[in-house]
Amino acid sequence: MTKTEESSAKEKKNVSFVEQIVQGELAKGKNGGRLQTRFPPEPNGYLHIGHAKAICMDFGVAERNGGICNLRFDDTNPSKENDEYVNSILYDIKWLGFHWNNIYYASDYFQKLWDFAIWMIKEGKAYVDEQTSEQIAAQKGTPTEPGTESPFRNRPIEENLRLFNHMNTADAIEGSMVLRAKLDMANPNMHFRDPVIYRIIQTPHHRTGTKWHAYPMYDFAHGQSDYFEGVTHSICTLEFVPHRPLYDHFVDEVKRMEGCEVLDDNRPRQIEFNRLNLTNTVMSKRKLHSLVDEHLVSGWDDPRMPTLCGMRRRGYSPESIRNFIDSIGYTKFNALNDMALLEASVRDDLNAKAIRVSAVVDPVRLTITNYPDDMVEEMTAINNPENENDGTHTIKFSKHLWMEREDFMEDAPKKFFRMTPGNEVRLKNAYIVKCTGCRKDENGNIVEIFAEYDPESKTGMPGANRRVKGTLHWVSADHCVKAEVREYDRLFTVEDPSADERDFRELLNPESLKVRNECYVEEYAATKQPGEYLQFQRIGYFMADKDGSAEHPVFNKTVGLRDNWKKN
Question: pLDDT value at position 467?
Fold first, then answer.
């Protein structure tokens, strides 16, 4: 097999079952050979990584198969939606690297949906129900027992029309009545038992203001919106499997209203795949809202959150998220994905693009006793060994340095190859030094380490070829900037908080954020801005935070150089 054939076979193997269905229908010329998908978020919160999986599917399938993908905001509940969420969704999709062909809103079709509801009432297929939501729920029955018909199910068409028009007035009281489709109260699919299709909401809409007071439910608006737009494939997650017959039913009813022949060929096809779930976090918008509203996190973009804006702030790259989603794939079975898999994808991507800088997060002073007091040298540091085009920068070296406290042991075991009295180590990009001792305070804490340098061992000099087993990073104490470093752990203490019967707030990890205020970074690192990927050498990947400044930089730890997270 040639390399081209191997590559082609690999690509075919990696094609998801969803894309295989789409490609099969395109090959048969279904829908006139058209492919049109859509991503339909509700603007009631910020997108999280679960949405990213849907975005990669909706946009990716269209992109790879010559189709188009539109963005449609499912804005049918004004009490929870606003333009802040709309704008954040637009930004996140672009950040992930996708582009929509058109932007639509469910509110674009409010008049069409209203007219459709009127038609259903006139056809005897919908009625106004004045029961409470609790009464309606109680009458739904169970999956094994039929429901009970509403006492309002057979009220006259004229009365239904009058009440439905009243629902769309400023005088209508929320919860006093709803419009229900008249279907089958004995249907084994609970969604077919006279579903609510309109309810009263007196909150002004972010686009239509106070024009409407009655709004369609998701199941009534979604399929018809797909149909109005010419969507060929409605790709969604597995929880919508039982909704699919209702989706098809309402689309067929719209076609009947329009006098069209009811054929599968030009009905949008709903295909479902598994959701993305991650260990030690939650994806429920309700719970994420609670975390934000109750100030249990600093906001939607808290770096511990699974939101795309939180991951972006923490330092995750869009490529790493897309690569992770590609690696876990799409199936018909829900699974819990280990956060470590996502972090591994982040490491792989950042290794190729992060600029290497020197930073000390737990400092102890290192004094080179035989180095001239007033001498300062500029050492050359490679920005990224993975990409020589990233160039170099200089870092200053002097008599007084900061080094990591954990890199020194006064009484070290045999295989400790860092700094210890009598042993030599190399200071990265600088000299080989030999530790001569340390100084302690009155409590026995080490406050200063002493070493002597070999003037002939500077990196790049002939004497630098002498091999030592340890290389340590450092910053010059007189040429560095004090910084704040924020280190993150899992947001929840249990692997699957959604499956735990306890209140999710009780499961929050009190150690999920550790702030270090006594850190030092080289001057070059202090100039970096949010959005620039950094590697603190020998520590991990970091990104400057929006809370910082040139005088007081703040850095978020994205992920360590290796997976050191241990389960309790």
Answer: 85
